Structure formats: structure tokens, C-alpha cells
Amino acid sequence: MPRKSRTPKTTVVAAPEPQLPDGLVNEEPVVYPLATSSIVAQQVYSNPDRHPDKPGPWSHEADKVAWIDDETGLGCIMLRQVDGTLSGYVGVGPDHPLYGFEVDAVPLDISRTVHGGVTYGKACEVNRVESHARSRTVQERYSVCHVTRIRMRTIDYLEAVQTTEDQFHEDLWWLGFDTNHDGDARPNDDDYEKHSEDVYRDQSFVYGQCIALARCLRRIASERGSPEEMGGCSALLPRPESDGESH
């Protein structure tokens, strides 16, 4: 009798678990608690090299939190700095009157909307690997750019890169502020203990400032030319026919 052919055995190899980018603690959006409210965070990062070692109000805080403000639709970021303080940022698109404005060009009344004034005005920091990169790549956990959830992909030369659904936010301009001014506590400074009267500006405080700036920027975009209706955002913006040299 002819022998029956044997069915070849197949070996099932489990697919490797996807690796989250360095420092990212959430794969999907998560509810991030604040003192009196909460936000749906797209990114929550842990940056141990910046997080204060000593116990304090920062102990249970993350070191980068990125979310989209429900009311304005603008991307917001809280990011810890090397001195242990937190900075806040809001991104606007090319159609915004303040798009491309560097710090010294932001009208004073708008700058004063946030603690210490606007101290940051830059394009999105793109975190990608390029064979022809002209400058040092900013790691995702430190960058002022991405807000939407991270996904991983592979490009032609087999370098893993982090990207987002909207092409790195290259069309966003970020305005931000710091909390390391006179009277602000800087947890990582060597002389921190000598300034017990200084106040640590926690994430609830920075969140409130981010939201105030986002509301201000949204009103400017929708009500330009109506300073009486803008309250604290009543700075006169360049008229459309102006040369725009302040950009």
C-alpha cells in the first residue's frame, strides 16, 4: 500500500511584544488626574533624569504630559525641565495670527496671559531619524511637538522611528512659558533647601496656565480686530496689510 504523506509540522512563533518609546508609560490615551480635575492624556512620559530625587509635591507627577484641550482643540504639553520645574506649551497652526511669532514678537498683553510671560516660540521639534540629519535629534520624551498617540513604523533603511498620524506636527508653532522665575522653587537646584519660601508650580498650576493660554490663542484666532471682547488677550495684532516683519 502507498504510504500516506505526513503533514509537515509548523512552528508557531509568538510575535514580539511592541516596545513603547523610551519613557512612554501609556500605549493608549489615559485619564490623567490633577488636583481638582483630570484630562485625557495622549502621552504620559517618565523622565527619571529630570525628576527630582527628593520627596515633594512632584513625587506622583509625570515628567511629560500631552493632551488636546477639549474646548479649543489645541494641543498642550507639560514638560519637566532639567532644574525640576515644569513648562507649558500650546501649539497653533499656520492660519493663526501668532503663527511664526518668536518670543520677542508676541504682543505683551498676550504674553502676560501666563505665569512669567511667554518665553518660548518655536516650530515643532521633529523626532525622527534621518540619514542626512543636520542637527541633533530631540528625543520624543523631551520634545515639544507630538500630542497624538505614538505609533512605530520602519522606514527604508530599517531605522525605527517615532511618528504620528499627522506627519510630526510639522505645521504647528508652539508658544510656551516657564516656572523657574523669581519666587518659583527649582527642586533640582543645589541650593533648593535655602529657598523654602519659594513656591513649586505643580502640574495643576501649569495645566491651568496652559488652558488660559489656549483659550487666549483661540479667541485671538476667532475675534481678531475685536480687542474689547478679548479681555486679557486684547493686544493689537498686525493688520493683514502690514508687512509682517515681526514674524
- From the structure provided, what is the oligomeric state, counting identical versus distinct chains? single chain
- What is the mean pLDDT? 78
Low-confidence stretches: 128-133, 151-168, 225-231, 234-247
Helical percentage: 10-25%
Sheet bearing the most strands, described? 7 strands, antiparallel
- Report the C-alpha radius of gyration, rounded: 23 Å
Concise summary:
With 247 residues, this protein is α+β, with helices and mostly antiparallel strands. It is built from 2 helices and 9 strands, in the order βββββαββββα.
Protein traits:
7-stranded antiparallel β-sheet, two-stranded antiparallel ribbon, 10% helix, alpha+beta, globular, 247 residues, 19% strand
Structure description:
31% of the residues are buried. The chain is built from two helices and nine strands. The longest helix has 21 residues, at 203-223. The protein has one domain (30-233). The strands form two sheets. A seven-stranded antiparallel beta sheet has the order 1-2-3-4-5-9-6, with helices on one face. It has a two-stranded antiparallel sheet with strand order 7-8. The chain is globular, with a radius of gyration of 23 Å. The chain is α+β, with helices and mostly antiparallel strands. The model is unreliable at 128-133, 151-168, 225-231 and 234-247 (pLDDT under 50).
Would you spell out the secondary-structure blueprint of this structure?
Elements: E1 30-33, E2 38-45, E3 64-68, E4 75-80, E5 86-92, H1 108-111, E6 120-123, E7 151-154, E8 160-163, E9 173-177, H2 203-223
Antiparallel strand pairs: 1-2, 2-3, 3-4, 4-5, 5-9, 6-9, 7-8
